[in-house]
Design goal:
Number of helices: 11
CATH superfamily of one domain: Uracil-DNA glycosylase-like domain
InterPro entries: UDG_Type-4/5, Ura-DNA_glyco_family4, Uracil-DNA_glycosylase-like, Uracil-DNA_glycosylase-like_sf
Keywords: 4Fe-4S, DNA damage, DNA repair, Hydrolase, Iron, Iron-sulfur, Metal-binding
GO molecular function: 4 iron, 4 sulfur cluster binding; metal ion binding; uracil DNA N-glycosylase activity
Enzyme class: hydrolase
Bound molecules: iron/sulfur cluster
CATH topology of one domain: Uracil-DNA Glycosylase, subunit E
EC number: 3.2.2.27
Largest sheet: 6 strands, mixed
CATH architecture of one domain: 3-Layer(aba) Sandwich
Strand order of the largest sheet: 1-3-2-4-6-5
């Protein structure tokens, strides 16, 4: 995916401590959104597949024995391998992610967190970094205080409840301790997000935080330098989607001084998408 830019808006001071702030994300509400017809059934089937897969994996790897008190060494991280064949259809894609073992993040997840919200031509696609502990528990992204703040921000800009929104992350499985996903984990998982973008065909994308911004724009540019512009993300069909970078709401919980900048960022995309 490539990036371009227009419409400078301005910058706000640095984002050091973003990861530490993410680690403080708490518990709570789910993300409101419009669930698609049939998606719930697929999710349930996928969750069942994951549950059985986890159980089988636990037995095969001796996890049951460890719970019984026998010490066993941690297995080394599984080498990440980008997914070669990505499902074409939404339901099949969801099931593929639920069963995916393409990178080591699968080893410690309760379940993969595919995404949630409106799947019928959403106007906005909101992309974060990775599922948190509560997301992993409930199977939906942006749970807890960070999700509540995200909803408040989207309401403040008039996006919610007036425009359909879909929410997901760069990687679909939770890194233990909310650590930043490794580059190889991001590369392994990106084909799923690219296919989600192709199938959802959103009118605009919001990248929350440095990791999401750099992954979606395929750049190592400084986070602040990516804000205040409307980038263009190339889709699989060759089309482009406008993308705006802003702060992850988990950061804003500890650094509320950046809320004004986030509000400007969201309004920048709203002006393009509206
Ligand atoms: S993070 Fe993505 S690539 Fe890694 S196991 Fe989960 S779904 Fe597969």
């Amino acid at each position: 995916m490539s990036a371009g830019s227009t419409t400078p808006v301005g910058t706000v001071a640095g984002v050091a401590g973003e990861v530490a702030a993410k680690a403080g994300v708490g518990v709570g509400a789910s993300v409101p959104g419009r669930a698609a017809g049939g998606a719930g059934a697929v999710a349930a089937a996928a969750a069942a597949a994951v549950a059985s897969g986890v159980a089988a994996g636990a037995a095969a790897s001796g996890l049951g024995a460890r719970r019984g008190g026998t010490a066993a060494p941690e297995r080394p991280p599984r080498p990440a391998q980008p997914v070669a064949e990505v499902a074409q259809e939404w339901g099949a894609l969801q099931a593929q992610v639920a069963a995916c073992e393409a990178c080591g993040l699968c080893a410690k997840r309760r379940q993969a967190v595919f995404g949630a919200g409106a799947v019928q031509a959403p106007r906005w696609l909101v992309v974060g970094e990775a599922p948190g502990e509560q997301d992993d528990r409930h199977g939906e992204p942006f749970q807890g205080r960070a999700g509540m703040l995200l909803q408040a921000m989207l309401r403040a800009t008039g996006v919610v409840p007036n425009q359909p929104v879909y929410y997901t992350n760069i990687v679909k499985c939770r890194p233990v301790g909310n650590r930043t996903p490794r580059p190889e984990e991001i590369q392994a998982c990106l084909p799923y997000l690219r296919r989600q973008i192709a199938l959802l065909a959103p009118a605009g994308i919001v990248a929350l935080g440095r990791v999401a911004a750099q992954a979606l724009l395929d750049t190592e540019a400084d986070f602040e330098s990516l804000r205040g512009q409307v980038h263009r993300v190339r889709k699989e069909d060759g089309g482009e989607v406008p993308l705006v970078v802003t702060y992850h709401p988990a950061l804003l919980l500890s650094r509320p001084q950046h809320k004004a900048g986030a509000w400007r960022d969201l309004n920048l995309l709203r002006a393009v998408v509206a």
